[in-house]
Give the backbone structure.
Amino acid sequence: MTLNTTPSTDVTDALETRITVRAFLDKAVPDDMLRAILQTAMRSPSGGNLQPWKIHVMRGKTLAEFKADAKVKTLSGQMEEPSHPAYPANLWEPHRSWRYKLGMDMYDKIGVARDDKIGRMMWLANNATFFDAPVGLIITGDKRLEMPQHMDIGILIQSIMLLARESGLHTAPQGWWRNWPSVTSHHLDIDKGHEVLVGMAIGYGDPEARVNDLRADRAELVEVSKFYD
Ligand SMILES: Cc1cc2nc3c(=O)[nH]c(=O)nc-3n(C[C@H](O)[C@H](O)[C@H](O)COP(=O)(O)O)c2cc1C
């Protein structure tokens, strides 16, 4: 399915046309558009109205230097202790299979063979350049935050992602940035005691890129819900 780049005019359309875009056009996002999206996203609810987030917005030179650093570190095979692991250890069913399927479908789309470990690693390294998006966000929060506040951050990023669709933009949420605390602390003014919770690429999605044709499957509602009368 080709990437839908038409600006959304309602929430349903924004939800249905939002996908994780992993290739962006070399086209700047107007500053007032970006600020309006983030300003409106501030209306996101949070338990107790804690608003437990700090949003670091990178463009231009800062973004270029940040990406260059991250890419070098990634490709040199360096690893750091992530602020949080991406998934629980020994992922179980059905989540394990969903994750596996996503990987297979994605490598299928971009033409990387299952056993091509190097090709897969090279592809994953595109995370380090925010998939060439002109805007990179790093969202941090205090290390003392608990699970409910992490949920609040999830709500915030969904708000940003849906509002982006209203402006004809696309996004990629990136847990990837939890892996590089040294890069984030070197380039950004991160509050003492804060850690990276998630990152996000924002920009104009590339409709020509095959990877953006990927539509990640979903479970049927009946598989994940129980209705009670
Ligand atoms: C919090 C969060 C973190 C994610 N981190 C990454 C990431 O680091 N790299 C990536 O390529 N996709 C990342 N994704 C995208 C998911 O793989 C994607 O949302 C899922 O496969 C469903 O596909 P869709 O977003 O295209 O509907 C992340 C998604 C979420 C919600």
In short: Residues 19-20, 22, 102, 127, 172-176, 198, 216 surround flavin mononucleotide (CB under 6 Å). The CA atoms of residues 71 and 128 lie 5 Å apart.
